[in-house]
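We emphasize that the prediction below concerns an isolated chain of 157 residues; any contacts that depend on oligomerization or on bound cofactors are therefore not represented. The input was used exactly as deposited, without trimming of termini.
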Amino acid sequence: MMKADLDAIDWKILAELQSDGRMTNVELSRRVGISAPPCLRRVKRLEDAGVIRGYRALLNTQDLGLHVVAFCLVGLNHQSESDLKAFAEKTRAWPIVRRAWMVSGESDFMLHCVAKDLAAFQTFVIEELTSAPNVDTVRTALTIRQIKDEGLAAIGE
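Result of the prediction step, given as a token string:
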């Protein structure tokens, strides 16, 4: 069930902002075909409803010296609600973990990690992740090359 009642203009606004969150309201209103004041009201309504959660700069990790992107699939020994919450909270304290999901299947969590180099990633996996309370298994996948980088929602599909 959709959280907000969205019309075609709202969807256009979301698609445009997901593509370029820094455009001015005037440019946004031009692209979606409405005048600036109602466009601004719509954006504010989408923000207030939580449909638009915020705005971020997308950083080039390679240029920042962060050369390793990896995913970790983590299995816990115990999966009670308190165990899952405790591990989820632990992930928030690890700067190397940029995104984290609780998942179904053979693993309990999937962690998106970004590190300066392989040694830093290995140190995290050995000294932090595998030694964390209740962690049973850790499987890692080092990325080779990113081949797609789109907004998180497929709008207009």
